[in-house]
Every structure is written in structure tokens, then in C-alpha cells.
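Session log. Operator J.P. requested a structure for one protein chain; no other inputs attached. Running the standard single-chain path with C-alpha cell output.
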Amino acid sequence: MKVLVATQKPFAAVAVKGIKDILEAAGHEVVLLEKYAAQGELVAAVADAEAMIIRSDKVDAQVLAAARKLKIVVRAGAGYDNVDLQAATDAGVVVMNTPGQNSNAVAELAIALMIFMARTQFTPATGSEIQGKTLGIQAFGNVGRLVGAKAAALGMKVRAIDPFLPAESIKAGGAEPAATLEELYSQSDYVSIHIPATPQTVRSIGYELITRMPKGATLINTARKEVIDEEGLERALEARPDLKYVCDVAPDNYAALQEKFGLRVFATPKKMGAQTAEANINAGLAAARQIADFFATGNTRFQVNK
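Structure written below.
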């Protein structure tokens, strides 16, 4: 089988070697498409591929229409909103992610961003400590649990909410369950967001929720920028001069936010939650193993377009 590794943002060399070793040992051919400049290059490259590994690369209906032999796409990472799941299902293509492989990297970044904002972006201005403060975690999956554990180790009180988990599971993960999202926001000095971008969550966090936060609170977003109502965020920051927002993907109105709110707002230059050597390798190798297993045994454990 021909496996296309299509990455505008390439894997580390050691990860590429590991991917090749795993797939070639299983009898597959590996072809690389790295740092491509236009979506048309991906459309052309996928024409005879039977499997594909991607990172943040966009697999839309056009790509899937061109990939007539394609049987499986694995997104090396947890999020998969860059893949048109319905078009994949219609084309008979299995889509998988690699949950958990990037989780620690994202969790460490969330904690780092929280401290960065608590210490006024490391300027000489007086900051604050996070010990004794309350952290609210919105979605308590792989990343959320790791964030909670690290925050608890730093002396924070941890609360969480997840519509897919019972209160007992949240307690078992070391957090106090919040009854409602409104309660979580109103009782947390920091809120860390870990929800996916879905039709239900896009623009779901805006003025009403943000302004419920206590005095001096900070909202941390290492999930997707689409879950934030950016106009609502701007209104909230205007109405509440004590609030802060930090993220690892800049909102569309970032320039305006910086100009208006200065050190109260920060976004990393690019999405960097999974940008560690360890996460890069882990996710790439997991993707390769899943493809090898899929062709050998039909295993679809991590399929997301069921």
C-alpha cells in the first residue's frame, strides 16, 4: 500500500524515520509531501495514495474526490476539524486521530500560559501567584485531566465540567465537578478550555460566560480559536478591565485586542500546543502504527467518522 505523509508543517526527522521504519516493515511504501505551498499539490499527490498521514493539513471534499484509492486518513493529533468527515464517510474513507499523543505537550503549555499571564507576561510589573487560586477546566479528557493534575501539584484548587462524563469520573480524575458551565466560570480564577470545534461549540464562549468570571480572572484557550465568540470577547474585555485572555492561536481581531488591552491579551505566534519534540514523535509513530494495524487486521479503534 502507498502511504502519503502530507505535512505542510513537517514532522521532525527522527519521527519521519520512525514512520518509515514502521510502515516499510509492514510492507508499505512511504511517500513524503512536505512544506507544500498550495492545496493543489496535495490534491495531485493523493491521487494514487491508499493511506495518508496528516498534521494540520486540510483534507476537504476536493482532496477526497481526487483520492480514488484512499482507504484511511490518520490525523497525527487529537483534533480533526481539518478533515471533512462527511465527505470522507461518503467516499468510504476511514478517518482516525491519535488521541493522547499530544496531551502532555498541550497541558504543559496551558500551565505555562497561565503562569505567564499571572506574572504580567514576565514584565517588571507586579504579578500574582497561582497557588491557592481556583482553576476551572472546560472538558475533562486527556488534556484536561493532565492540566488538572499539574495545577493541583502547584497548589491550585481544581474544578471541571464535561458533558460526556459523570460527576464520579471527574472526582476520580482529581477535580471537583461543576454543576453548570456558568457555575464553573463564575467560581474560577482561571478557566482552561479543552473543547473541540463542533457545530455546538463554535462561538459558544462569549460575553455572557466571560463576564461571569471573578475579578482578575484569566481565560486560557489551547483548544480552537473558533470556540470563542471574538466580538463577545472584545466586549467582555472592554466591560471588565480586570480580565485577561491568553491563547495559542491568535483570534482574527488580535491586532485590535492588543492595541486596546495591551498586556491583558496574548497569543503565541502560531498554534504550538503539540510543538514539542516528544509530541511530534509520539503522534507520528502512533499514526504509522494505526495504519499498519488497519491494513493488517482491520482495526478501526480510533475512527472518528463512524
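Operator note: The mean pLDDT is 96.
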